[in-house]
Amino acid sequence: MRPGRATLYEAAYDALRAAIADKRLPVDAVLLESPIAECLEIGRAPVRRALEMLHEEGHIRRFEGRGFLVGGVAGSRSSPKRIDVAVLNLKPAQASWHSLKSFSWQRIYDTAEHEILSSIPFGTFRVQEAGLCTRFGVSRTVAREVLSKLLSLGIVEKSMGSYWIAGPLTAEVVQNQFEIRKYLEPIALKSSAPGLDSEDLERMLVAIRERQTESSVISMEELSTFEDYLHITCLQGASNRRLLKIIDQNLLSNIANRIFRERFGVVDQSYVLKEHCAVLEPLLADHYEAAAAALVKHLDQEGRRGVANLKVLSVFPEPQVAEYLVPMH
Amino acid sequence: MAKNVSLKIIGSREMLVESIRQRAEQDLGFPVEFEILDGIKAVQRAVTAPETFAIYDNWHAVDLVWTARTIQPIDIRKIELWSDLSRLTKKGRLTADSNIGQGAAPVRSLYVQADDALGSKPTDYVSILPTVHNVDAFGYSDDLLDFVEQGEQESWAWLLDERWHGKAALAGDPVVGAIDAALAIKASGLRKFNDLGNLSIAEIDALIGILGHKKKSGHFRAFWGSGEECTNLFKSKRVMISSLWSPTLTQLRAQGGRVTSAAPKEGYRGWHSGLCLSRAVSGRALDMAYEFLNWYLAGFPGAVMARQGYYMSVLDRTRKHLSQAEWDYWYGGEAASSDLGDSDGHTIVKKGEIRDGGAYETRMSKVAVWNSFMDEHNYLVRRWSELIKS
User: Alpha carbon of A245 to those of A116, A184, A188: distances in Å?
Assistant: First the structure.
């Protein structure tokens, strides 16, 4: 498998191309989607796309039967060779293939999540499964897995009519979610704090303090590193896993601040960084109650900012959304 | 720095009147450019491109530009007439016992606090220089009075009253129309609202539901999009009652229409506009901006605005630029001692007429709710446009 191949259909293309090149797949061998997909342990959609690419490039051709034949358009007629692809060892080395599949899935998930979250401040959307399949070149199974995870994080819901809905992200949702987090995150923090790596904590605090002395504006990416550390890493050691799951389901409230900051910059950076230090400093000194209280203050402010930032976003027309998102209302 | 750098101001057409611009250039000695941006376009520009203007004339959008940090605080020590600003503006109410009114009362977002939030506690810096303000209510034609009982008080509930079924209209812009509707619904006893200036999701849903029902039954003739459309609706007698803006009332009167602006017993919908400074302006341009701000309060603009029915935050300076008759009518609530004209000279008030609702103090101490950008603005706009399309 060529390095840098990030999608399944590209990797499938590589595998088939290699097998054609070294004659494991001889000229006139019949290529059918299902057996190939089964052999590579991926969905039919990426296989279909890979075959289309090979066809466009002239490595394979259509014939009177189903599927393709190996070899470009030849002058002479040949008889299709039916081969059992399962014995051909099409799949590349196990570890890289497996990591590609999960990496690929993660990329698809992350992209879908970002696209949906970016749209919900602007309305309510129906998420079309078929559209997701087309957008990412994946099977229904994979699309449903993506939707399943989005469902577990409260980013989509299933409507009465059994279709998937995302949004709207209203000020009410932002306030309610931050309220839940204000109750639960301090509890998780106090439970998790004793087990936190002090070197990591110290490193993070130093990074924030350095940032505070710089006059340049912090990027959203950098701020996300700090935010993820505070709201995810610092809480991870909590013994109550159900508690963490509920917190997870209320993190989408961040998107209002995130979109605003991506668009307008982190205008309130000095306050945000101060609030971070106010949590991490007592944590480092094992003053867990103080850290928890500071976390509540930070969440309070972020919630307030979330509502204000959402209001600014509300004067802009709906942005172009991904094709699998259909506006409702 | 170029000697002829001009002062760029953006805002709506009601505020950026040409006669004001010309007089400013004359009095201040530098070029002044007005760029008219209607509706939401002004806000969009103000939050995204502070480098394209020095001053933003706006109403109830100050929260948004402050959040986006595209404006800079105004130092009130550089505003000569700050101490002359009306109590209404600085304290939120004219008299100690009048209520402040729900919604975005200007004082609530006026002073810059220590943590950069905006609030009513006085400091040396403000987010906006408060200028033009007014109260609005609905308007109704004389014909409507035939259906009204002896001694019946004007009420927001009239907008939904079945007695003039099919002859009612609301403003098509949800920022105005929704609050008028909420006032009407509350006055009719159909529903309570926690804060009329900041409706919740459930309240918006209920409001749209009630209006949708009324619309379906044919109660509303129109949801008008412009002041001109509103004028035509009254003139053609297609409506007897409607949301109404002051310039529209003035225009109707100028054309001989007999429309009264109500003084509802529940109070008015208030609004307050002002001038904000772009964060991108500094040096000479900043000095020019402060000169304009001071000039704006000094009387001439106030007089021009008065003839549109608008009030100015510095009253006595405005008074000096109005005739006695004008002051007595527009601010004093007294009968016009002569015919009065608008800034172009057309007669808009006949001798003997009294301004609906009376004097400045009477009207401005009865604000039930201030026009605001609600937290759920986006949701309101979407649901409102569903309503209009249905």
Answer: 20, 11, 11
pLDDT band per the 50, 70, 90 thresholds, residue A96: low
Q: What is the pLDDT of residues A214-249, one digit of tens each?
A: 888 899 889 999 999 999 999 999 999 999 999 999
- Determine if the peptide bond prior to A168 is cis (ω within 30°): yes
Name the average pLDDT for chain A. 89
pLDDT at residue A315, rounded to an integer:
87
| Regions of chain B with pLDDT less than 50 | 1
In the predicted structure, residue A150 carries a pLDDT above the cut 90: yes
Any residues with CB less than 8 A from the CB of B330 and at least 6 apart, and which? B306, B307, B309, B322, B355
pTM: 0.83
On whether the CB atoms of residues B36 and B16 are closer than 8 A, the answer is yes
Band (A95; pLDDT cuts 50, 70, 90): low
Structure tokens at B264: 């509802």
What is the identity of the amino acid at A266? V
Query: What is the tens place of the pLDDT at every residue in B55-66?
Result: 999 988 999 999
Which residues of B120-163 form beta strands (DSSP E)?
A: 125-126, 129-136, 138-141
Nearest-CA distance from B369 to chain A in Å? 19
Whether residue B71 contacts residue B276, with contact meaning beta carbons closer than 8 Å, is answered with: yes
Burial of A299-318, coded b for 16+ CB within 10 Å and e otherwise, reads bebbbebbbbbbbbbbbbee
CB contact under 8 A, A314 and B377: yes
Each residue of B180-212: b (16+ CB within 10 Å) or e?
bbbbbbbbbeeeebeebbbbbbebbebbbebbe
| Residue numbers in B near A314 (CB within 8 A) | 373, 377-378, 381
CA A328 distance to own-chain centroid? 24
Put simply, the answer to whether B44 touches A123 (Cβ < 8 Å) is no
The model's pLDDT over A157-195, given as tens digits with 9 standing for 90+, comes to 998 888 999 999 999 999 999 999 999 999 999 999 999
User: pLDDT band at A77, cuts 50/70/90?
Assistant: low
Whether the CB of B64 is below 8 Å from some CB of chain A: the reply is yes
Q: Do A308 and B373 touch (CB under 8 A)?
A: no
Distance of CA B36 to the CA centre of its chain: 17
Pair of tokens at residue B52: 């394209």
Q: Are B134 and B360 in contact (CB under 8 A)?
A: no
CA A219 to chain centroid, in Å, comes to: 20
CA distance linking residue A7 with residue B288, whole number of Å: 59
Give phi and psi for B74, each to the nearest 5. -100, 130
Using a pLDDT cut of 70, give the percent of chain B over it.
99
pLDDT tens string A267-298: 999 999 999 999 999 999 999 999 999 999 99
Q: Smallest CA–CA separation between A169 and chain B, in Å? A: 9
Provide the residue count of chain B.
390
Task: Walk across the sheet containing A30-31 and list its strands.
Answer: A30-31, A68-70, A60-62
Which stretches does DSSP call E strand in chain B?
7-11, 32-36, 55-59, 71-72, 74-75, 102-103, 111-112, 118-119, 125-126, 129-136, 138-141, 168-171, 220-224, 241-243, 259-261, 268-278, 311-312, 340-341, 347-349, 367-370
Q: Cα–Cα distance between A278 and A295 in angstroms, integer?
A: 8
- Residue B254 phi/psi, 5° resolution? -60, -30
pLDDT in the model for residue B104: 74
Is the CA virtual torsion B255, B259, B263, B267 positive or negative?
negative
Question: Residue B121: what are its φ and ψ, rounded to 5°?
Answer: -75, 125
